[in-house]
Automatic annotation (TrEMBL):
Pathway: Pyrimidine metabolism; UMP biosynthesis via de novo pathway; (S)-dihydroorotate from bicarbonate: step 2/3. Its EC number is 2.1.3.2. It comes from Enterococcus diestrammenae. Residues 158-304 form the Aspartate/ornithine carbamoyltransferase Asp/Orn-binding domain. InterPro entries: Asp/Orn_carbamoyltranf_P-bd, Asp/Orn_carbamoylTrfase, Asp/Orn_carbamoylTrfase_sf, Asp_carbamoyltransf, Asp_carbamoyltransf_Asp/Orn-bd. Carbamoyl phosphate binds at residues 59-60, 109, 139, 142, 267-268. This is Aspartate carbamoyltransferase. The keyword Transferase applies. It holds the Pfam family OTCace. The lineage of its organism: Bacteria, Bacillati, Bacillota, Bacilli, Lactobacillales. The gene is pyrB. Belongs to the aspartate/ornithine carbamoyltransferase superfamily. ATCase family.
Length: 310
C-alpha cells in the first residue's frame, strides 16, 4: 500500500474499526515524519489536553504526556486518586468538568469497555476523546504504534505472517491488532492457552500450536498475561515456569524464528513468562522501538484530532 500524503483529521479516536485504511496509513506516515523531526503548525495559540487514567499505565500515559509536550500542548495534570473521583464523581462528570474548563482533548484509560459511548453522545461535552484503552475492548494508539513499527521494518503489511500469542481474550491490544492487520492484508495466526482463545477470532486468523508457528511467521507478537483481568480459576491454572515452557517464547523457540523475523510485545513484559528475559532486548526484538514509536504516532493522533477542531 502506498502512503498518501493527505493530512488526516479526526473527531475522536475510539477504536481502530472506525478508521479508514487511508487514515491508518496517514497516521503512520505522519508518525514517521514526526520521528524524522517534522514540526506541527498549530492553528490556534493554545491547546489544552488532559490524560485521565483510571487504570495503571506507564507507556501510554507517559508517551501521551511526551507527545503533548513535544507539540507544545498545555497538559492539565489529573490524578484520579487525588481528585473528586474519590468523592464519587463519575467519569462523565470528570470529563464534563474538563470540557467546561476548556480542555480540547481528553485521553482516557478506563476499565469499562466502550466507556466512551456516553461521552461522545453528550451534547454538553465538547472535548475530543482519545481512547487510551477500554477494559478488554480496544487500544487504538497501541495498534497504530505497532503498525508503525511493522511498517518501518517491512515497508508493507500485505502477505506478512503475524502471530499473536498468549492472553488473547483479555487483550485489547490483540483485538485492535487482529482487526487492522487482517484489513491491511497480513495473515494473522494465534496461539497460547486455548482457554484464552475465542472462536470469534477465527474471522481474523487461525489458531496453530506455537511450535508450528514460530518458524513460519515474520512477526511474533507476544502478549502480557493479564493477571488483573483473571478469575481465581484462571490464575491458578499456570505457574510462571509452566506458562513459559508451554506458551512462551523461550530461548529455544526464539532460535527457530525465521531470519529477519521480529519479536514484539506491547509491554510491560513479564520477563521469563511470555518471553525469555534475554530476548526482550535481543537483536530480533522491536520492543524498545515500539515504545519510542508510541510518542511519534501519538503526536500524529493529537495533531489529527486538534487540526479537526480548529
Ligand atoms: N502497552 C501499554 O499499554 O502499556 P501501559 O499499560 O504501560 O500503558
Amino acid at each position: 500500500m502506498i502512503i498518501q500524503s493527505e493530512r488526516i483529521s479526526l473527531k475522536h479516536l475510539l477504536s481502530v474499526e472506525a478508521l479508514s485504511d487511508q487514515e491508518v496509513m496517514g497516521l503512520i506516515r505522519r508518525g514517521r515524519e514526526f520521528k524524522q523531526g517534522a514540526k506541527w503548525t498549530p492553528e490556534k495559540d493554545q491547546y489544552f489536553a488532559t490524560n485521565l487514567f483510571f487504570e495503571n499505565s506507564t507507556r501510554t500515559h507517559k508517551s501521551f504526556d511526551v507527545a503533548e509536550k513535544k507539540l507544545g500542548i498545555e497538559v492539565i495534570e489529573f490524578d484520579a486518586g487525588h481528585s473528586s473521583v474519590q468523592k464519587g464523581e463519575t467519569l462523565y462528570d470528570t470529563v464534563l468538568t474538563m470540557s467546561a474548563l476548556g480542555v480540547d482533548v481528553a485521553v482516557i484509560r478506563h476499565g469499562d469497555e466502550a466507556y466512551y459511548d456516553e461521552l461522545i453522545e453528550s451534547k454538553t461535552i465538547q472535548c475530543a476523546i482519545v481512547n487510551g484503552g477500554d477494559g478488554s475492548g480496544q487500544h487504538p494508539s497501541q495498534c497504530l504504534l505497532d503498525l508503525m513499527t511493522i511498517y518501518e521494518e517491512f515497508g508493507h503489511f500485505e502477505g506478512l505472517k503475524v502471530a499473536i500469542v498468549g492472553d488473547i481474550t483479555h487483550s485489547r491490544v490483540a483485538k485492535s491488532n487482529m482487526q487492522m492487520l487482517k484489513r491491511l492484508g497480513a495473515e494473522v495466526y494465534f496461539s497460547g492457552p486455548e482457554s484464552w482463545y475465542d472462536p470469534s477470532f477465527e474471522v481474523y486468523g487461525h489458531y496453530l500450536p506455537l511450535d508450528e508457528l514460530v518458524s513460519m511467521v515474520d512477526v511474533m507478537m507476544m502478549l502480557r498475561v493479564q493477571h488483573e483481568r483473571h478469575t481465581d480459576d484462571e490464575e491458578q491454572g499456570f505457574t510462571k515456569e509452566g506458562y513459559h515452557q508451554q506458551y512462551g517464547l523461550t530461548l529455544e523457540r526464539g532460535s527457530k524464528m525465521k531470519r529477519g523475523a521480529i519479536i514484539m510485545h506491547p509491554a510491560p513484559v513479564n520477563r521469563d513468562v511470555e518471553l525469555a528475559d534475554a530476548l526482550v532486548e535481543g537483536i530480533q526484538s522491536r520492543i524498545v522501538q515500539q515504545m519510542t514509536n508510541g510518542v511519534y504516532v501519538r503526536m500524529a493522533i493529537l495533531e489529527a484530532i486538534l487540526t479537526g477542531r480548529a
